[in-house]
Amino acid sequence: MNGVLIVDKPAGLTSHDVVNRVRRILHERSVGHLGTLDPLATGVLPLLIGNLTRLAQFYTTAEKTYEGVIRFGFATDTYDAEGGPTSPAVKLQVSLEELQALANRFRGPIEQMPPPFSAKKVHGVPAYKLARKHKEVVLQPVKVEVKELEILGVEGERATFRARVASGTYVRSLAHDMGKALGCGAHLESLRRSAVAEFDISDAHTLDALEAAATAGTPEEVFIHPRRILPNFPAITANDEMTARIRSGSAVNLPELSQAPQVKVFYGQRELIAIATRVAGTLFHPKIVLAAAQPVPASK
Length: 300
Known about the structure:
Structural class: alpha+beta
Number of strands: 16
Helix content: 10-25%
Largest sheet: 9 strands, mixed
CATH architecture of the largest domain: 2-Layer Sandwich
CATH class of the largest domain: Alpha Beta
CATH superfamily of the largest domain: Pseudouridine synthase
Number of helices: 6
Strand content: 25-35%
């Protein structure tokens, strides 16, 4: 079974929990996700299934969009609501204008310290494993990019926001650093991811919806149409002869796509069989073959 599925991840599950459940529902071992969501967070979790797990390499720098709530007044050791306070709570009243001005300081390329409870490695060990044992976690700041950060509203100590960020950006760290800049502490109270690359929340299905479709024998009905994957790559539909060559890993001529560096090759409307890379002129080599070669009929 090959496909792309967008799960609306519920709170309380890790991304790996979701992957394991989808494996059981679909009876498919090969399932991978595009970008971890913390257990606290909900929303868009794209999953690649079957041979399409090999497309993950094209999403390593995918943009992500989030909406959520920042609670000002105290910081936590995890930088979110699941952690313990690191200082007494402070009562304060912040204005929308004040926070909008503060947000200006966190847009664009910035240096950001990852949370101590994160998957960042310290001498080969994930930081969260050290933090759980109350061992010192020494991390280095990393360069990230916050492409959009809008404060949408303020009520008491809580601010709602929307952010669009480059890969590798921790929204928890954004909340923590904004609290530090105000001198009052802050943490991420809730988070919902609304988009990853070309996939958004309108594409997402609950795990229950997936299970119902699988029980009905139609799990593909909740998959993303393959033609929507990697929209920046032109698509071509191969004929039988081209398909046979591509399935066996041989180069093919694609005159109509002579200017494209990479293309998606389909057999029919829904079967994505390869990602091909232009070698020279109109000659393309299948960089990733997603469909096995068809057996050659025995001679009579």
